[in-house]
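Page header: ASSEMBLY MODEL / two components / 232 residues total.
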Amino acid sequence: AQTVTQSQPEMSVQEAETVTLSCTYDTSENNYYLFWYKQPPSRQMILVIRQEAYKQQNATENRFSVNFQKAAKSFSLKISDSQLGDTAMYFCAFMSPGGYQKVTFGIGTKLQVIP
Amino acid sequence: NAGVTQTPKFQVLKTGQSMTLQCAQDMNHEYMSWYRQDPGMGLRLIHYSVGAGITDQGEVPNGYNVSRSTTEDFPLRLLSAAPSQTSVYFCASSYLAGGIANTGELFFGEGSRLTVL
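Prediction written out in full:
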Protein backbone atom coordinates (compact mmCIF):
# COMPACT_ATOMS: atom_id res chain seq x y z
CA ALA A 1 0.00 0.00 0.00
CA GLN A 2 1.09 3.53 -0.71
CA THR A 3 1.79 5.99 2.07
CA VAL A 4 2.06 9.76 1.92
CA THR A 5 3.88 11.67 4.65
CA GLN A 6 3.62 15.37 5.35
CA SER A 7 5.95 16.06 8.25
CA GLN A 8 5.07 19.73 8.78
CA PRO A 9 1.72 20.02 10.60
CA GLU A 10 1.81 23.81 10.57
CA MET A 11 3.84 26.48 8.84
CA SER A 12 3.76 30.22 8.54
CA VAL A 13 5.19 32.67 6.04
CA GLN A 14 5.28 36.41 5.66
CA GLU A 15 3.27 37.88 2.84
CA ALA A 16 5.34 38.14 -0.38
CA GLU A 17 7.87 35.60 0.88
CA THR A 18 8.49 32.06 -0.40
CA VAL A 19 7.59 28.89 1.46
CA THR A 20 8.15 25.21 0.73
CA LEU A 21 5.87 22.42 1.94
CA SER A 22 7.33 18.93 2.14
CA CYS A 23 5.84 15.63 1.06
CA THR A 24 7.35 12.19 0.80
CA TYR A 25 5.67 9.02 -0.38
CA ASP A 26 6.34 5.36 -0.54
CA THR A 27 5.43 3.16 -3.50
CA SER A 28 6.78 0.29 -5.50
CA GLU A 29 5.10 1.49 -8.68
CA ASN A 30 6.94 3.25 -11.48
CA ASN A 31 4.10 5.21 -13.03
CA TYR A 32 1.77 7.33 -10.91
CA TYR A 33 0.42 10.83 -10.30
CA LEU A 34 1.14 13.26 -7.50
CA PHE A 35 -1.03 16.18 -6.46
CA TRP A 36 -1.19 19.13 -4.14
CA TYR A 37 -4.67 20.16 -3.05
CA LYS A 38 -5.58 23.35 -1.19
CA GLN A 39 -8.39 23.56 1.36
CA PRO A 40 -9.11 27.17 2.40
CA PRO A 41 -10.90 27.68 5.72
CA SER A 42 -14.52 26.51 5.43
CA ARG A 43 -14.24 26.05 1.69
CA GLN A 44 -13.94 23.19 -0.70
CA MET A 45 -10.71 21.52 -1.62
CA ILE A 46 -9.25 22.45 -5.00
CA LEU A 47 -6.37 21.15 -7.06
CA VAL A 48 -3.25 23.32 -6.98
CA ILE A 49 -0.83 21.35 -9.10
CA ARG A 50 -0.32 17.89 -10.59
CA GLN A 51 2.79 15.92 -11.55
CA GLU A 52 3.00 12.77 -13.65
CA ALA A 53 5.80 10.50 -12.52
CA TYR A 54 7.04 9.76 -16.04
CA LYS A 55 7.67 13.47 -16.65
CA GLN A 56 11.06 14.64 -15.44
CA GLN A 57 10.18 18.32 -15.72
CA ASN A 58 8.77 19.83 -12.57
CA ALA A 59 5.22 21.13 -12.85
CA THR A 60 4.54 24.86 -12.47
CA GLU A 61 1.29 26.78 -12.11
CA ASN A 62 1.84 30.52 -11.75
CA ARG A 63 3.27 31.07 -8.24
CA PHE A 64 3.14 27.37 -7.41
CA SER A 65 5.84 24.93 -8.42
CA VAL A 66 6.98 21.51 -7.31
CA ASN A 67 10.33 19.86 -6.74
CA PHE A 68 9.77 16.27 -7.82
CA GLN A 69 12.57 13.89 -6.88
CA LYS A 70 11.44 10.46 -8.07
CA ALA A 71 14.39 8.49 -6.73
CA ALA A 72 14.03 10.10 -3.33
CA LYS A 73 10.21 9.82 -3.48
CA SER A 74 9.89 13.46 -2.59
CA PHE A 75 7.33 15.95 -3.88
CA SER A 76 7.59 19.40 -2.30
CA LEU A 77 5.43 22.42 -3.09
CA LYS A 78 6.96 25.88 -3.39
CA ILE A 79 4.74 28.93 -3.10
CA SER A 80 6.38 32.13 -4.29
CA ASP A 81 5.22 35.64 -3.47
CA SER A 82 2.85 34.31 -0.81
CA GLN A 83 -0.54 36.00 -0.61
CA LEU A 84 -3.09 36.14 2.18
CA GLY A 85 -5.39 34.00 0.06
CA ASP A 86 -2.83 31.19 0.23
CA THR A 87 -3.76 30.60 3.87
CA ALA A 88 -5.17 27.07 3.84
CA MET A 89 -4.59 23.42 4.56
CA TYR A 90 -2.47 21.81 1.87
CA PHE A 91 -2.76 18.11 1.16
CA CYS A 92 -0.29 16.05 -0.79
CA ALA A 93 -1.86 13.10 -2.63
CA PHE A 94 -0.68 10.08 -4.58
CA MET A 95 -2.65 8.22 -7.23
CA SER A 96 -1.62 4.91 -8.70
CA PRO A 97 -2.67 3.95 -12.22
CA GLY A 98 -5.48 1.83 -10.76
CA GLY A 99 -7.81 4.80 -10.62
CA TYR A 100 -9.25 7.42 -8.33
CA GLN A 101 -10.08 4.89 -5.64
CA LYS A 102 -6.35 4.44 -5.30
CA VAL A 103 -5.74 8.03 -4.22
CA THR A 104 -3.88 8.31 -0.91
CA PHE A 105 -3.78 11.62 0.95
CA GLY A 106 -1.31 12.94 3.47
CA ILE A 107 -2.49 14.41 6.77
CA GLY A 108 -2.06 17.97 5.56
CA THR A 109 0.01 21.04 6.36
CA LYS A 110 -1.71 24.11 7.73
CA LEU A 111 -0.19 27.21 6.15
CA GLN A 112 -0.73 30.66 7.60
CA VAL A 113 0.29 33.70 5.56
CA ILE A 114 1.08 36.62 7.86
CA PRO A 115 0.46 40.18 6.67
CA ASN B 1 -22.04 25.59 -12.99
CA ALA B 2 -22.65 24.39 -9.40
CA GLY B 3 -20.00 21.62 -9.45
CA VAL B 4 -20.33 19.24 -6.48
CA THR B 5 -23.06 20.10 -4.00
CA GLN B 6 -23.34 18.54 -0.56
CA THR B 7 -26.17 18.84 1.93
CA PRO B 8 -26.51 19.39 4.81
CA LYS B 9 -23.40 21.39 5.72
CA PHE B 10 -23.87 20.73 9.43
CA GLN B 11 -25.74 18.00 11.30
CA VAL B 12 -25.94 16.84 14.90
CA LEU B 13 -27.21 13.34 15.56
CA LYS B 14 -27.78 11.20 18.60
CA THR B 15 -26.22 7.77 18.82
CA GLY B 16 -28.36 5.25 16.96
CA GLN B 17 -30.07 7.73 14.67
CA SER B 18 -29.86 7.37 10.92
CA MET B 19 -29.37 10.01 8.29
CA THR B 20 -28.38 10.57 4.68
CA LEU B 21 -25.75 12.95 3.38
CA GLN B 22 -26.62 14.10 -0.09
CA CYS B 23 -24.16 14.66 -2.92
CA ALA B 24 -24.98 15.88 -6.41
CA GLN B 25 -22.75 16.88 -9.31
CA ASP B 26 -23.68 18.52 -12.58
CA MET B 27 -20.49 17.79 -14.52
CA ASN B 28 -21.58 14.37 -15.84
CA HIS B 29 -18.77 12.70 -13.91
CA GLU B 30 -18.78 8.93 -13.89
CA TYR B 31 -16.68 8.64 -10.75
CA MET B 32 -18.08 9.72 -7.39
CA SER B 33 -16.80 9.05 -3.90
CA TRP B 34 -17.15 9.82 -0.22
CA TYR B 35 -14.28 10.64 2.12
CA ARG B 36 -14.12 11.38 5.79
CA GLN B 37 -11.60 13.82 7.18
CA ASP B 38 -10.37 13.45 10.74
CA PRO B 39 -7.63 15.43 12.50
CA GLY B 40 -4.21 13.91 11.99
CA MET B 41 -5.51 11.30 9.58
CA GLY B 42 -6.01 13.07 6.27
CA LEU B 43 -8.82 11.94 4.01
CA ARG B 44 -9.95 8.35 4.01
CA LEU B 45 -12.11 6.78 1.32
CA ILE B 46 -15.45 5.38 2.50
CA HIS B 47 -17.22 4.26 -0.68
CA TYR B 48 -16.94 5.01 -4.35
CA SER B 49 -18.80 4.51 -7.61
CA VAL B 50 -17.65 4.34 -11.23
CA GLY B 51 -21.11 4.73 -12.70
CA ALA B 52 -24.82 4.37 -12.10
CA GLY B 53 -25.58 1.06 -10.45
CA ILE B 54 -21.94 0.37 -9.56
CA THR B 55 -20.54 0.95 -6.07
CA ASP B 56 -17.65 -0.44 -4.08
CA GLN B 57 -16.05 -0.14 -0.67
CA GLY B 58 -13.11 2.04 0.19
CA GLU B 59 -10.80 2.00 3.15
CA VAL B 60 -13.36 2.64 5.92
CA PRO B 61 -16.82 1.42 4.75
CA ASN B 62 -18.23 0.02 8.00
CA GLY B 63 -21.37 1.77 9.21
CA TYR B 64 -22.06 3.44 5.84
CA ASN B 65 -24.16 2.54 2.82
CA VAL B 66 -24.27 4.08 -0.63
CA SER B 67 -26.25 3.73 -3.82
CA ARG B 68 -25.92 5.24 -7.27
CA SER B 69 -29.22 5.26 -9.14
CA THR B 70 -28.29 8.21 -11.36
CA THR B 71 -25.07 9.69 -12.69
CA GLU B 72 -25.68 12.91 -10.76
CA ASP B 73 -26.42 11.68 -7.24
CA PHE B 74 -24.44 9.65 -4.71
CA PRO B 75 -26.00 9.70 -1.23
CA LEU B 76 -24.20 8.38 1.83
CA ARG B 77 -26.34 6.72 4.50
CA LEU B 78 -25.44 6.28 8.13
CA LEU B 79 -27.60 3.43 9.35
CA SER B 80 -27.06 3.74 13.11
CA ALA B 81 -24.83 6.67 13.97
CA ALA B 82 -21.99 6.21 16.44
CA PRO B 83 -19.73 8.82 18.09
CA SER B 84 -16.82 7.40 16.05
CA GLN B 85 -18.57 8.72 12.95
CA THR B 86 -18.16 12.31 14.09
CA SER B 87 -16.17 13.78 11.24
CA VAL B 88 -16.19 16.04 8.22
CA TYR B 89 -17.44 14.27 5.13
CA PHE B 90 -16.47 15.18 1.58
CA CYS B 91 -17.98 14.08 -1.66
CA ALA B 92 -15.65 14.09 -4.67
CA SER B 93 -16.16 13.31 -8.33
CA SER B 94 -14.25 13.11 -11.57
CA TYR B 95 -14.16 12.01 -15.16
CA LEU B 96 -13.42 8.55 -16.32
CA ALA B 97 -12.15 8.02 -19.86
CA GLY B 98 -12.95 4.54 -20.99
CA GLY B 99 -13.09 3.41 -17.37
CA ILE B 100 -9.62 4.71 -16.64
CA ALA B 101 -8.89 7.82 -14.57
CA ASN B 102 -8.52 10.79 -16.89
CA THR B 103 -6.61 13.77 -15.56
CA GLY B 104 -6.48 12.52 -12.01
CA GLU B 105 -8.14 15.64 -10.61
CA LEU B 106 -10.86 15.16 -8.04
CA PHE B 107 -13.59 17.80 -7.69
CA PHE B 108 -14.76 18.23 -4.12
CA GLY B 109 -17.88 19.48 -2.42
CA GLU B 110 -17.69 21.93 0.46
CA GLY B 111 -18.01 19.26 3.11
CA SER B 112 -20.58 18.19 5.70
CA ARG B 113 -19.68 18.43 9.36
CA LEU B 114 -21.37 15.67 11.34
CA THR B 115 -21.42 15.40 15.11
CA VAL B 116 -22.75 12.29 16.81
CA LEU B 117 -23.54 12.67 20.50
